[in-house]
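Retry 2 of 3 after timeout on previous attempt. Resubmitting structure tokens to design endpoint.
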């Protein structure tokens, strides 16, 4: 498979896009989860609508697209079996480790504070082998750390990628509506539990076979901005109707395309205005930040409950808005420290070893 290497702007743009998307994906999971709270304060409900229902969900689509875009370049240097081995170490191994870690933390919080968490409640009635399969290895998409379920589906997309590339070469853009029809009327389960992830991963594959950079996406400034404004307006409108956006399949596609494109465009703006070498160090830490954020959040939530109980009234808003940013600062330095650990530990905890122990 012949292709030019990624140009420097596209490479930097992808790094910014990963950072932006993972920031919002982490923010969606600030405990206790506003979507689970009955009658939250109006201002918090509005914040959660924009961050969770709009940017959080669309970030998954954008990252899936980027993963599909990059997998084509991966096969220039690696065969399928090598790719599976590397992605298993990078995706499944740390996913299992952090699922186990959050179970341990949840049990410790229960013992210290007496307050149960959703992590502990998910273990009730399960045998040991069921905990290993379903809560640690996420076989049924019910992992102890909900956000890490995404990694399970991305890994399966990688497994299926030779078939996706084969179809993309023959069907071109027609592959995407074909996959949408399958997802809408049949389903990709149990191979891929969230069909949208496979659809946008495949979208990235088709795009990558057509273009060597993200330049074509960068031309969609006006449509992406208009589409994003429409999405935000509709999300608030849904609050006053009996409709849920999740019931409107094609609207969900429109939302992910619009906001996902906006995220890629924001990354393009940053790539052309903020070319600090520091961004490369942040990007190397981003995956660890995503893997470990739920454990950090759960510990902080346990401490918060000791001081303020489980109330989401003021001053909870400061906890909600600041926790992810605080974690990005702390997590960045933790990842830097991990670089000095032995390679097997780095791979277990972060999926990749950047530097041997000195």
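Retry 2 succeeded. Sequence:
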């Amino acid at each position: 498979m012949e292709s030019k290497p990624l140009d420097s702007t596209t490479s930097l743009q992808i790094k910014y896009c990963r950072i932006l998307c993972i920031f919002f994906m982490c923010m969606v999971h600030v405990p206790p989860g506003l979507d689970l709270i009955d009658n939250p304060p109006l201002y918090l409900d509005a914040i959660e609508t924009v961050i969770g229902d709009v940017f959080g969900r669309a970030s998954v689509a954008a990252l899936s697209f980027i993963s599909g875009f990059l997998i084509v370049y991966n096969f220039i240097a690696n065969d399928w079996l090598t790719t599976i081995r590397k992605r298993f170490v990078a995706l499944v191994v740390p996913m299992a480790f952090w699922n186990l870690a959050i179970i341990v933390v949840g049990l410790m919080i229960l013992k210290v504070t007496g307050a149960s968490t959703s992590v502990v409640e998910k273990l009730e009635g399960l045998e040991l082998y069921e905990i290993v399969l379903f809560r640690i290895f996420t076989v049924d998409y019910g992992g102890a750390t909900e956000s890490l379920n995404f990694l399970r589906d991305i890994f399966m997309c990688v497994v299926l990628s030779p078939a996706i590339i084969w179809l993309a070469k023959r069907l071109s853009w027609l592959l995407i509506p074909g996959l949408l029809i399958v997802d809408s009327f049949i389903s990709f389960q149990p191979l891929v539990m969230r069909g949208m992830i496979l659809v946008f991963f495949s979208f990235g594959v088709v795009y990558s076979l057509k273009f060597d950079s993200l330049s074509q996406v960068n031309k969609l400034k006006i449509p992406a901005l208009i589409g994003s404004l429409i999405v935000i307006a509709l999300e608030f409108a849904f609050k006053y109707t009996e409709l849920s956006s999740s019931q409107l399949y094609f609207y969900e596609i429109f939302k992910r395309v619009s906001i996902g494109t906006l995220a890629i465009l924001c990354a393009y703006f940053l790539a052309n205005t903020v070319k600090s070498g520091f961004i490369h160090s942040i990007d190397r830490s981003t995956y660890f930040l995503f893997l470990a954020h739920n454990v950090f959040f759960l510990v902080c939530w346990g401490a918060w409950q000791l001081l303020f109980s489980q109330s989401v009234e003021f001053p909870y808003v400061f906890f909600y808005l600041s926790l992810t940013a605080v974690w990005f600062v702390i997590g960045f330095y933790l990842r830097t420290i991990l670089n000095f650990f032995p390679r097997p530990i780095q791979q277990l905890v972060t999926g990749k070893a950047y530097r041997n122990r000195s």
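Attempt log closed. The CA atoms of residues 285 and 335 lie 6 Å apart.
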